[in-house]
Write a structure and sequence with these properties.
407 residues, alpha/beta, 5-stranded mixed beta sheet, two-stranded antiparallel sheet, 19 helices, elongated, DNA-binding, Transposase_mutator, DNA binding, transposable element, Mutator family transposase
Length: 407
Amino acid sequence: MSIDKDLLDRLMEGRSAGDLFGKEGILSELTKALAERALTTEMEEHLGEERAEEAPEGQNRPPNRRNGSSRKTVTTDTGKVVLDIPRDRNGTFDPLLIAKYQRRFPEFERKIISMYARGMTTREIQGHIEEIYGFEASPSLISAITEAVMDEVTAWQNRPLEPCYPVVFMDAIRVNIRSDGAVSNKAVFVALAILPDGTRDVLGLWFQANEGAKFWAKVLNDLRNRGVQDILIAVVDGLKGFPQAIEAAFPQTQVQTCIVHLLRHSMSFASYKDRKAVATALKAVYTAVDAKAAEAALAEFEGSDLAARYPAIAPSWRRAWDEVVPFLDYPPAVRRLIYTTNAIEALNSKIRRAVRTRGHFPSDEAAAKLIYLTLNATSTEWKRSVREWHAVKSQLAIMFEDRFPMA
């Protein structure tokens, strides 16, 4: 439906483009006029429905009717608007457009939540609202709007999960959180799963001051308690104690270390002039046809001058070998998927950008709120289906047989 151009011309008569916005702008006038017209329509429908209802037998109930109006100041996208809210004699009218105790249009709240999710601080949001809409939103108002999200966060953190996930990427980011008067650097553990249909989902967030076997056990037991019975492949970034925790909670899960992180760790020991040679030698290991060929390639590197110059590299691969070998059993399509934790690193980078502006958070709950909103705001990017999923799915279904869940 398009708006009549003559009507627009009449509305703009005697006004400039600068008169559109602000407290006295035409948009505020239009919002008020349209909202009051909608409220009037709601009242007419309400009274019509009540008239259609028969009075209880034996009662001579007078028909409900209008009873003037009351004024309410409502916060909208264009500023504050004073609305005349129609009243009825029986006091049964509760408008849908703006409920009895509601002081803000839902779209206004969504805009504040969107700004918060993009990492803007309360002060920045306050300044933005004052600059754009011409009125001051108190910090308590902004906090109240964002705090209302905590019920959603709690429900999301405790929601039931799928019985089986083909692949789960697990990693942690560090966030500064105040506790007992001091700011500590906590790990926020993120689990990003690939569903049977190839789409992605974040299973939850877990906060811990120190990563370790007990913490990982707690995370994995939480997944079990929420319905997860099996994980086919868990891709991790050398998290201490994690393989043992996975084995205890999900004995059949194959743990795969992130090859890219292992390479980066190796490169950190080599001088700049030798990095290309080291990368070429190690590539022969992780691109080998099978585990036997990879073992031979690693042995060859161990006997080279490069390994002698950088003695820390080969042992780092040996220590992680049990979590490297599974990768070599997979066909190319699956290897490309589990080669790196880049999928979760890309997600974590969005979270880091949002939390960076905060400095620190007053509590775990405050950090969880922002991270949850960030995940929602960027969901169209990280939830999209995995490339070549059809080929990967076919390979996983063959390799894991009856354990692979059918979408």
